Amino acid sequence: MNLRRFAGLLPVAGAFAVGAVAERFWFGRAPPSIAVDLAQPLVVVTSWGAYGGGAFAILAATAACAAVYLAIVVRRLRPGTESGDVWAIALVAAAALAAAFAWPFVFSSDTYAYAAYGAMATAGLDPYAPLPAYLDDAFYDAARRQWGGSFPVCVYGPVFVAVASALVRGAGGHGLAATLWAFRIVAALAFLSSIPLLGAALTAFSPAQRFAALCAYGLNPAILWTVAEGHNDALLLLLVTAAGAIAARHPRAGAFVLGLGPLLKAPGAALVFGAVLAAFLRRRPDRVAIVAAGLAGLALATSVALPPLWPVLAALGADGRYSPQISLQGLIGPVPALALAGTAAAYGVWILARRDRGGLAWLGIALLVSLPNWYPWYALWLVPWSIAAGNTRASRALWAATISSLARYLPDAVGTLGPEAARFAAGAAVLPLVFATAGDRRAGPALKKATAPP
Fold it and tell me: What is the pLDDT of residue 69?
């Protein structure tokens, strides 16, 4: 391991440690009105009014300090890139996750749902169907409480349901708190394992570019926080980076593995489509075989994941209500936002057709703009788009947007924000993308560096 790199990057973890101290101080001043929330095995900041706004402010300040420091220090350390950087980055990421685990609360209830799905599968119940109201259990009751009476049915792939069931069987006997910790620790281990895999995948990058990319991925504050919360997107990233490492030596095998992403979570399909599109438009000699392998993996994953998910999708289509909130769609309306998403996607395809991988950033921006809600954990599968695009204005804007997506936590943390404040949060999340619209030509030499070889 490179100790100089480790010491230079360690303040990123230090920001989370300082944030933990600040949140512990704030936690000690909690009002009596949220005593019931504070008694839960994993405390989730939900509708806490001004006190919840204070908790969010500490998270926002922590992420902002870590991101600004990271952007500055990477520029200083990159010229002297040395071997062992990947392990220094992974160790700093581990320290940051350990510091994040010391925070007294989180901002997402998703791990409660994961535990309930695992408990349902273990008990022989269908997690893709609504849980009968008469069934009582510590796992079910805790999840119901987090969602105001009934938690949403599972929308994840069967492989994740199997993982959730295994964690409940292994840790459930020690109680709900231990099980929630198990989900968080597994997410952290999956993410840490993905860092060296990403390093192995970036063989076409120069050492300096690889160092910057690994820092942008492994030390992204939004990613670190959402991984510490236990989001299952970390498992999807483990599969994606493993596919990239395999593809560095065996492109078709890597494409096939990438296509299996929907077995864990649906966004895996978007990643495989982006990869096969890039291979095809950049006119790789083996592009037909790569596209076929990726689509074969996707077809296999779909054939396994779709049957149990079909009733859920049908119910959403019949009874669901499309309600954009903290996103560009919530800010300007679905039709204009989707039109912009289509324009960004078309521009990205045009750039890729010129054999320039910088177009991948625009596809990532199109994906982000098309989302009705920008939850922070989406950063876990948007950052790979940013890294794959190289050093362009658009890729930097996409990376910055993953940080500002933490603004999505604010309305839920406070619970009493009106439409104006919600639009402010959406605007904060959108703002970094404004820089991308200035045009990649202003990035100058950086765009040329991102151009892929024939």
Answer: 94
Residue bearing tokens 């220094």: 88
* Contact status, residue 284 vs residue 353, Cβ threshold 8 Å: no
Tokens in use for 142? 């805790």
What is the dihedral sign for C-alpha 340, 425, 432, 235?
negative
pLDDT on residue 249: 86
Query: How far apart are alpha carbons 140 and 131 in whole angstroms?
Result: 8
How does pLDDT run across 312-345, given as a tens digit for each residue?
A: 777 666 555 667 777 777 777 888 888 888 888 8
CA-CA distance, 282 to 447, in Å (whole number)?
16
CA atoms within 13 A on the CB side of 367: 27
Closest-CA residue to 245 (of 202, 193, 287): 202
- pLDDT tens across 159-206, in order? 999 999 999 999 988 899 999 999 999 999 999 999 999 988 888 788
Beta bridge partners of 112: none
Domain boundaries defined on the chain? 108-205+223-450
**First-to-final CA distance of the chain:** 34
Is the four-CA dihedral 95, 101, 105, 109 of positive or negative sign? positive
Backbone CA torsion sign across 367, 372, 375, 376: positive
Q: At what angle do helices 251-258 and 287-319 cross, to 10 degrees?
A: 0
Backbone angles phi, psi at 356, to 5 degrees: -120, 115
With b meaning 16 or more CB within 10 Å and e meaning fewer, what string describes 145-164? bbeeeebebbebbbbbbebb
* Residue ranges for the chain with pLDDT beneath 50: 441-454
